[in-house]
Amino acid sequence: VQLVESGGGSVQAGGALRLSCVASGLPDSNYLMAWFRQAPGKEREWVASIISSTGTRKYGDSVKGRFTISQDNVKKTLYLQMNSLKTEDTAVYYCAADLTCVGKFGYWGQGTQVTV
């Protein structure tokens, strides 16, 4: 499995960005995809996740109501729409895949920087 993120950049507070994560090698069976982020000097934080088969989504409290995770199963692409961005959203954002759906993410992208 390979994951490649894109879409990061610099934006003013209150602005929006959409991150993409193109996946290759994913199975046809059910899997869990997620976005994480890590700010300088801080631990990695889970942002949002989505179940491939059902589209069920969950969000961290810090982004709920502002961020939207979505997927295109045909294109094998994961998205993160980020609205009303705050300075505290500044971080490197990573997409990750869990093929066992138990919350153990064994596959990670290289990350994309978001600066607000």
Describe, in plain words, how this protein is organized in 3D:
A hairpin with a 6-residue loop joins β4 and β5 (45-51). It contains no helices and eleven strands. The chain starts with a strand and ends with a strand. The chain has 116 residues and is mostly beta strands. The strands form two sheets. Strands 2, 4, 5, 6, 9, 10 and 11 form a seven-stranded mixed β-sheet that branches. A four-stranded antiparallel β-sheet has the order 1-3-8-7, with no helix packed on it.
Keywords summarizing the entry:
single chain, 11 strands, mainly beta, 116 residues, 7-stranded mixed sheet, 4-stranded antiparallel sheet
Describe this structure in a few short sentences.
This protein is an all-beta fold. The chain has strands spanning 2-6, 9-10, 17-24, 32-38, 45-51, 57-59, 67-72, 77-82, 91-98, 107-108, 112-115.
Low-confidence stretches: none
The first-to-last residue Cα distance is 30 Å
Order of helices and strands: EEEEEEEEEEE
Largest sheet: 7 strands, mixed
Shape: globular
Number of helices: 0
Taken as a percent bin, the fraction of beta residues is over 45%
Radius of gyration: 13 Å
